[in-house]
Write a structure and sequence with these properties.
The structure is a homodimer.
Chain A: E1 3-4, H1 29-38, E2 43-47, E3 53-57, H2 58-75, E4 82-86, H3 91-102, E5 106-109, H4 116-126, E6 130-133, H5 138-147, E7 153-156, E8 167-168, H6 169-173, E9 190-196, E10 204-209, H7 210-221, E11 233-236, H8 248-255, E12 258-261, H9 268-278, E13 282-285, H10 287-299, E14 309-312, H11 319-327, E15 331-337, E16 344-347, H12 359-367, E17 377-381, E18 387-388, E19 397-401, E20 417-418
Parallel strand pairs in A: 2-12, 4-5, 4-6, 5-9, 6-7, 7-8, 11-12, 11-13, 13-14, 14-15
Antiparallel strand pairs in A: 2-3, 9-10, 15-16, 17-18, 17-19
Helix pairs in contact in A: 1-2, 1-8, 2-3, 4-5, 7-8, 9-10
Keywords (chains A, B): Ligase
Organism (chains A, B): Sphingobium jiangsuense
Protein name (chains A, B): Acyl-CoA synthetase (AMP-forming)/AMP-acid ligase II
Chain lengths: ~425, ~425
């Protein structure tokens, strides 16, 4: 028998010997705190729906988030409460994510492309207490606030286009302290909520934990996944309300990239101008956004020399899209994911064998949706649940596993709220 | 008031709403399991002390580790028991790390450069039950096994040089199953133990947890830290018994790099030959190893075209060393760390501003020991504990914080074992 004690009175436990490392809860506020402290002057640029180009930095985002947290606390928002957003990508939306999650409340991103009926169903299902919307969505947001009894207050990120009962977030936060003691709670608590429309039945909610968001961020920062560095200028074209914006709202501040939020105008000419003017090096979007940009680049014989690599996700990348991006000097990385995976499942980073391939073989290899990064595991099983070989031939049901994978198979079904 | 239930019967807790993501304990066996599953045929090459060049792969390391785990369990090794190693870097040593930690036992790396008296003190202090040593250290290991009553069994990784009572690890593991159910325990349990010699007083033990090792690995994989990819061929010259080998025993399998273990001959000519023959792209070592390699390269006007970047740690990198490496086309990255930090504290990755610097400014910037990656935090405090500005001018005491930082200030002092 062995007993073991140390200066701090530790003893051997039933299940083994406890390590002696510092406690450090994995909560998402760590990302914006790290960015504000070590990359505080790195810019966050937002192309707002009212035409204003807003320039702040990570220190500013942290400050705005802290003020919002304090305003939410003063309003009575408690840990576990759901606060919804209906907004495109912007610095203000980013500050709201951190302001909501930092105090243990849950940031529920609504998809503005859903119908009013769908959104009302989702808000009721989630029991959202507040709704924060872009000015461009003020009318829809007002309708939802009237229809959904759980919504106590409507806030607006930007001035409303038309009449609105909503208060500007800036006014709601005004006068509150720049400092807020974030985190300090269980890392398993929920940080975010996102409903997928699904193909059958009612929308299904995925409830991300602080832990799952922090680990997903670390998994995707790897060089063979999104490969982000402080030297990058990142444009998340994929919206923050869709599939967690590929985690970029966390991974960009985690490494201190410059961040360019494109807002709602995503046509080829606008994307080109903004990417060129802001020196974007990395962007993530669905194939349609890339097709629009390519049409513009080809029609005007333009290039984006700073744009070194782009992630193409949300739908399969066609061979033609890959070749067209290649021809403009843009390296396309195919990625596969889903809301239930936080969302990254696989990334097509080259392997050692890739270097020895012919150019045609390399293109075929890059069209595959890649392999899983550490932290994601997958297998294919037959109808009896027995694992099948992962040889690209065997067909069966896909099973995913990991700390950033929704519990309960691949879909977390959240039941109705009771108020 | 809000109540919240879901299909799985979840209810709102006192402290908030629990996220709905899969449980996934962060235990180090995940690294070798990932490597064996997705990079199983990636080679692990060992230059053994008996002259044998051993070639296996991650599938082989996982298999050897599982056999060893089963042999340890059969011998009665229980969770929390300490198993010591006295060995240079090799695939067998790597398999031992995973075989020991996978069953919840603690891998205690001994430094062969310590005196026999120091090692005996440390073994007694840690209460190690077994000792696994390289054949080259068989005599010292035999002495220690005789002196230290806690040691029940002596195992050898390679045939002994001279007489020894030790059993070969291969023979000890023979006949045991290739499969072992690793992990499944609390991620806060200890995985590794390393004593620093310190500058005053007795050696101090640092007790790494599974969680701290997994998180440290993820922090250091970032592009602005060690930046490892599956396309890398990694040579950890820094020994596994010193400062956790910069975490490379975990980070290399986590991404599936090829791994070249240099063994004990670390002179310039030998390093050159092995790096050239194996196509090493990344290596980590203290400045003296680099000086030896550079002397050889310069005397023979040789280059190592595959070697794209090296980490220089353990002691400050001199300007001359940086310039000499530059002149041979090898990018040197200064890193700062200590055993108590698992060990990476800071890495001198370039910032956006670096691109605009003159070549001389860039060299001055690269000689700094860098900034902290996400997951490590530091501050400088005055004698009253008040934070000072991090401006490169203020001098005070350094405080480190993070989940891979030893608890109890920066040094974990582990008390004597009682048997």
């Amino acid at each position: 028998m062995t007993a073991w004690t140390d200066d701090r009175g530790m003893t051997m436990r039933e299940d083994g010997l406890r390590g002696l490392m510092q406690p450090w809860s994995m909560t998402v506020n760590r990302f914006i705190e790290h960015a504000a402290r070590w990359h505080g002057d790195r810019e966050v640029v937002s192309f707002r729906d009212d035409g204003v180009v807003e320039r702040t930095d990570y220190a500013g985002i942290r400050r705005d988030a802290a003020r919002l947290s304090n305003a939410l606390l003063a309003h009575g928002v408690a840990p576990g409460d759901r606060v919804a957003t209906l907004a495109m990508n912007s610095g203000a939306h980013l500050a709201a994510w951190y302001g909501i999650a930092g105090i243990g409340a849950v940031c529920h991103t609504l998809n503005p492309r859903f119908s009013e009926d769908q959104l009302a169903w989702i808000i009721d299902h989630a029991g959202d207490r507040m709704l924060m919307a872009d000015g461009a969505f003020a009318e829809m947001a007002g309708q939802l606030a009237r229809r959904c009894p759980s919504i106590e207050k409507l806030l607006l990120f930007t001035p409303p286009q038309g009449e609105s009962s909503g208060q500007l977030v800036e006014d709601f936060s005004a006068g509150h302290s720049d400092e807020c003691a974030w985190g300090g709670f269980d890392e398993e608590l929920a940080a975010g909520l996102c409903y997928t429309s699904g193909t059958t039945g009612d929308p299904k909610g995925v409830l991300y934990s602080h832990r799952s968001n922090v680990l997903h961020t670390l998994f995707t920062l790897q060089p063979d996944a999104l490969n982000l560095s402080a030297r990058d200028v990142v444009m998340p074209i994929v919206p923050m309300y869709h599939a967690n914006a590929w985690g970029l709202a966390f991974s960009a501040p985690a490494v201190g990239t410059r961040l360019v939020m494109p807002g709602s105008r995503l046509d080829g000419a606008t994307l080109f101008e903004r990417m060129r003017d802001e020196g974007v090096t990395f962007a993530a979007a669905v194939p349609t956004a890339w097709l629009g940009l390519l049409d513009y680049l080809e029609a005007h014989d333009e290039r984006l020399p700073a744009l070194s690599r782009v992630v193409v996700g949300g739908a399969a990348m066609s061979e033609q899209l890959l070749r067209r991006l290649d021809a403009r000097g843009i390296e396309a990385i195919a990625a596969w994911g889903m809301t239930e995976l936080s969302p990254v499942g696989g990334v097509s980073a080259p392997l050692p064998a890739t270097a020895a391939m012919t150019s045609e073989e390399r293109i075929a290899s890059r069209l595959k949706q890649g392999r899983v990064p550490f932290g994601v595991d997958m297998r294919i099983v037959d109808e009896n649940g027995a694992p099948l070989p992962h040889d690209g031939v065997a067909a069966g049901a896909l099973q995913m596993r990991g700390p950033a994978v929704a519990a309960g198979g691949s879909v977390a079904k959240i039941g109705g709220s009771q108020r």
